[in-house]
């Protein structure tokens, strides 16, 4: 050890130097250095690749098949609809309108605000003459009540006090004592199904007014007041 160690080196450095020299001798004995150089200098040859086989897809020939028919109809002759309904067949004609629809579609011209207020005033005057034992209210008709939508909302305070708390069938009785059933929606506080039939049958129009008198828990007596058009005319039932 003293012969290998150099002068002025620490024991640690001397041990490290001996380890390095010993590793070099082992590498020379195994010829690792020359083997590494030979690998670097060897020419690179491409690795053989497996050739992919191309799949040749032939165009399929579509053979039309006859339409499927149930076994029950397989032996029956084929129906030719062109013979049953020829192209020159007459079109169906619309059935004529009912008299009530003719009344509903009649026009009376524009309604002024003065005519609307006058119809409401007459309805309130009629209400004041009714028996106070039966609760009542006045409702001015709007476009959404009698033309489009056919939804008639009732006064909220009236519904809270007198109307059922659940959906019910409410009967409307006109001045001729004819009855019409309507659907009362409690959570919306208004009349839906059936009200359109009543309004159309009585020719009610935008601007009219009506007095609703509750003669039974689910029955209204309805009095209709017609609004005059700008020319002063009124439409009678």
From TrEMBL:
This is B3 domain-containing protein. GO terms for cellular component: nucleus. The keyword Transcription regulation applies. Keywords: DNA-binding, Nucleus, Transcription, Transcription regulation. Residues 137-228 form the TF-B3 domain. It is found in: Nucleus. InterPro entries: B3_DNA-bd, DNA-bd_pseudobarrel_sf, REM16-like. GO terms for molecular function: DNA binding. Pfam families: B3.
